[in-house]
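Thread: sanity check for a docking pose with adenosine-5'-triphosphate

Original post by kr_44:
Hi all, I'm comparing my docking run against an independent structure prediction. Below are the sequence and the ligand SMILES. Could someone generate the full complex and paste the structure tokens? I mainly care about where the ligand ends up relative to the chain.
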Amino acid sequence: MTTTTTDIATSPVLEASGVTMKFGGLTAVQNVDLNVNAGEIVGLIGPNGAGKTTFFNCLTGLYVPTEGKVSYKGTVLPAKPHLVTMAGVARTFQNIRLFANMTVLENVLVGRHTRTKEGLWSALLRGPGFKRAEAASHERAMELLTFIGLEHKADHLARNLPYGEQRKLEIARAMASDPGLLLLDEPTAGMNPQETRAAEELIFAIRDQGIAVLVIEHDMRFIFNLCDRVACLVQGEKLVEGTPEVVQGDERVVAAYLGTPFEGAPGAEEVAEVEAAEAHSGGGGATRTDEPAASAPTTRTDAADAAGTSESASDAPGGKGTTSQEGETQ
Ligand SMILES: Nc1ncnc2c1ncn2[C@@H]1O[C@H](COP(=O)(O)OP(=O)(O)OP(=O)(O)O)[C@@H](O)[C@H]1O
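Reply from moderator J.T.:
Ran it for you. Here is the predicted complex with adenosine-5'-triphosphate included:
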């Protein structure tokens, strides 16, 4: 499906308004408004700790926002993850959460459960209704595996897949719930350049199936190639939102990523005070500008290191990425 500008302008899928999330004294997300329209791919960027994942968690019912409202296709979403999934919003996580000892096909079937109406008795008795539903789920799961190019590995254990394929499988599992909006949290973290390019193509194909996409990513080239619109969070606040051209040319975004504070930026005043104190004491400590990009990777490799390794380096095949904590679900 090719989306026209009119579709984009007239059909909001996600409307988040005034979303604020506080953890005790820490405000992780501050009064953030963000819409995603039908047919759009929207990027969410920002340095480490900017509040991107917390914002996703507010959208998907994992957190109850301290303030604000989140609607999907005009209906306010309940703050319960399974109800959000049932409503039509699916997500993947920054750290891979597959069922390591289940097959590739079974992982997708798990994602299908919100669309299966058969109850416990029907399952126990294995009546005709249950068998029909089971066959339909199987067919849809295989369709999705074909879509992501993993149909030939349907019977493999998830833990035996290479890292890039595990990430694709996560996406297929999220798509199994037939979402209208897909949230992807760092889908290319830890991927090599070829895998990243393939992920880009896959996301375009998902959008062309009529699924709107909101994606968090540190890889700027990936984001600016992929997205119709990009929003940048810094210290919990939305700093700027616009087309990739507008956002990548915005000096505040550049400053946020390179660590040079600009007048009026969240936290700039504090940084200026620290620098002034250091200069006054002759301490010679490092200034913000002495440590560019330490917390704000601009390349794919940096992003993988910064965002992926602590969670994903240890136990997946090939030494990259985790196959999940068994038992976790969306
Ligand atoms: N459950 C929580 N309890 C307390 N503080 C939290 C919690 N979750 C996140 N935070 C804090 O909220 C802030 C934003 O974190 P968040 O993970 O949302 O940032 P992020 O932009 O996704 O970062 P990254 O790019 O590194 O994934 C951080 O200071 C983090 O420590």
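The longest strand covers residues 12-23. Hope that helps with the comparison, let us know if your pose agrees.
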